[in-house]
Specification:
This protein has 82 residues and is mainly alpha-helical. It is built from four helices and no strands.
C-alpha cells in the first residue's frame, strides 16, 4: 500500500536479478560487505517504519531511503578507514 506501491510492488524478477548481478563485483571487495550490510539493514528498517507509520511506502520514503542509505554507506566506509 502507499503511493509508491506500484513502483515497489512491480519490480520484475529479471530487473532485480540484473541489479544484483551488476552490484556483485563491488561486493567482491571485502571492505564493501559491511557497507552493503549497513545499507540493507537501514532499508529494511525504513520500510518497516513506513509501513507502520504511513501504511506503506511513498515516493518521499523511497527518496529518503536512497539518501540515508548513501550517507550511511559513506559513514561506514569512513569508519573503516580509521
Amino acid at each position: 500500500e502507499g503511493t509508491a506501491a506500484r513502483t515497489v510492488g512491480n519490480v520484475q524478477p529479471m530487473a532485480l536479478g540484473l541489479a544484483g548481478a551488476a552490484s556483485l563485483p563491488a561486493l567482491l571487495a571485502p571492505e564493501m560487505v559491511p557497507v552493503a550490510a549497513v545499507m540493507a539493514l537501514l532499508t529494511l528498517v525504513i520500510r518497516r517504519r513506513a509501513q507502520r507509520a504511513l501504511g506503506g511506502v511513498t515516493g518521499d520514503v523511497l527518496g529518503a531511503c536512497c539518501e540515508l542509505c548513501e550517507t550511511s554507506g559513506y559513514v561506514a566506509l569512513a569508519f573503516q578507514a580509521l
